[in-house]
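Session log. Operator J.P. requested a structure for one protein chain; no other inputs attached. Running the standard single-chain path with token output.
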Amino acid sequence: MVKVWIVVGLAVIILTVYSLVDCATTAHNRVRGLPRWVWLFVIFLVPVVGPLLWLIVGRGRRGAGVTRSMAPDDDLDFLKGLDRQKTDEERIRALEQELADLDEPDPRTGSAGSTGTTDKSPTTDKSGTTGKSGSTGKAGFDPDQADPGDGELPGRRDA
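Structure written below.
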């Protein structure tokens, strides 16, 4: 009878050590039910029941963390991404078209873009600069006139 108790004791010790090592080295996403540190206490403090509970309940399946690969046309997230990408491309195209329309010269006035003003007669303000009445902004700046650049500066001789 003593030999049976020694064998049973060794089996409990081996089961407990195996369960402790298994719990300590199992991936975080495979631990179920309780946090890992609680499982370690249960395995250690409840001799036979703790290790058996860990092996039956606490340890997740091997394939639980592995996702099955699928074809792109079966993946709903991938298909939603395509719709989102298509919508984004259409929105970008529309914005680029708006910018291109703003850059094209207005056939009525010959200037780029339009501000909605109709009075284009030249006037002179306090600083002596010539502008168009009704459309000049701060310091004689004409919003209908293109930005000076690439030889459009007044008084430049190299243009």
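Operator note: The beta strands are 122-124, 130-132.
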